[in-house]
Amino acid sequence: xxxxxxxxxxxxxxxxxxxGFSVTTEKKVVDLxxxxxxxxxNKWIGWPTYAGAIIAGVGVVLVFTNQKKAG
Length: 71
Hints:
By secondary structure, the chain is α+β, with helices and mostly antiparallel strands. The protein is 54% helix and 35% strand.
C-alpha cells in the first residue's frame, strides 16, 4: 500500500505541473474516389489542478496510514 501511495503522490504532482496535453486527430471530410480531403484537428485533453492535489493527498494519506500500522 505504501508503494501505491508513493505512485499516487508522483502522479498527483505530475498532474499539477502538467495540466493537460494536446492530441492531433485527422478527420476525413470528403472522399470522392481519387479525391480525398482530410482535416487535422487539435484536441486539448486537460484536467483541473485540484484533481492532481486530491490524488497526491490520497497518496500521502496512504503512505502515513501504512507507516502507523508498520511502526
